[in-house]
Design a protein that fits this description.
This protein is an alpha/beta fold. Helix content is 27%, strand content 34%. The protein contains eight helices and 13 strands.
Length: 271
Amino acid sequence: MRAVGEFRREILLVSHEAIIVVAASNKPMEWFNDLYDDFRMTTGFGHVSDEQTKREVDFICDVLELPEEARVLDLFCGAGRHSLELMRRGYAATGIEFNPDYLKLAKELSEGAGSTPHFIQGDVRHVDFGEGYDAAIIMFNSFGYFSDEEDQAVLARTYHALKKGGRFLIEVLNRDWILKHFKESEVSEINGVRVVEQREFDALTSRNNFIIERYEEDRVVRKEGSWRLYSAHELKNILEGIGFRFIAGYSNLEKESLTKDTRLMRMVFEK
């Protein structure tokens, strides 16, 4: 498997026709900036129902014990579905997202509302979060993009952005579950598009190195990445080392306890 960032244009013969493999750039770039294109937006959180978002925000409000008019920091907010629902419930949400197209959609979705979340376009490693938040969230497995040091720096910045007693919810895939069900190759069809994913797990770095090829009507779109996976105990130790106090871990929105068989971990901490 090629190293992440080795993007180039290639010609493949598919059904005796020349197909161009498209990458977002001919020069190295950070993989996560390339991964989140329009296709991933519409087939990812673009397919999450309003009812599911409301259930998730019910859970957020419950486990974070949000006071009235609480200020909530929504990191890696995507198209802002959690920020928008929090706003509808009277909370003051600040969403930070790197992808300008996602924030454009978020602002379109907020049109006509009485108030709008404060959206910031930028890299969470460098953007000023502000301070004095009652709570912070990272949802939809939006973590593990960076180096270990950078991941931990983002968590430390989150800690410093919270009030004393402020709570933090992080929702990420469970490394232990991933390894138990790990597939080196997987083929699927999404919205009529054939998608092939090849994966390699690096046991020394706990990273899932992957190549995704999307066979669209007139081209093949290739994406490469290296996602850092975290186990519950590792994430707990990191956050406690920063200064957080662990509150609880959940397997689902019904608040069943986190176990080794939990796929999507929801972990709550307090400053």
